[in-house]
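Handoff note, outgoing to incoming analyst
You'll be picking up this chain. Sequence as last confirmed:
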Amino acid sequence: MALNTSFSPPSIVEVRQSDNNPTEVKQYASKHQIELYLKGNAAGSGMGWTILRPVAFMGNFTPDVRGKGFLSMWEELGDKGLQLISTHDIGVLAAGAFSDPAKYHGRAISLAGDDLTLDQAKKIFKDTVGHEMAENFNAITMAPRHVHNERAMMLKWLKEVGFGAEIEELRKEEPELEDFAKWLKERLCLSSRRVRNVKKERGDF
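Most recent structure output, in case you need it:
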């Protein structure tokens, strides 16, 4: 889709030291090349650019197989925290980049609203939702070998390097940034209530 604008749409995915560190994780290395391409083509063209680098999505926290895989990887990080961001907040910052391009011009902004170990997340979940987080997320379905290889590479990177967003600095700019507890209250719990209401309307229970 062509945009009649001199401002490039925000690019995504946070990688620590992304300006000079492509990493061996394929999806992050590809993003690194996209950033270099964007900056190279914008130079001298008069086109402004902003790069948004979100970390792991809170929306990955789902009851399906993909969500179990996400939690399994999170568990393997042990005492090392995982940075998380709400997709709602990505939208807020992206909208800000379009509505005020002068403020965001030439900036690469790492996006995170929380940094938690899985044990910390479990406590927040229980305190917020009122029951324990499901514990059966180690049951990962069979997947092609390349998927397991990529997962292992990503896990290694998360353990040794990890995301590097400055959460408190970002919160100064966006005070309503969602942490995990707020996301559970305003996104997950709200979504669950909507599902229950739809089921009641349909007479499912």
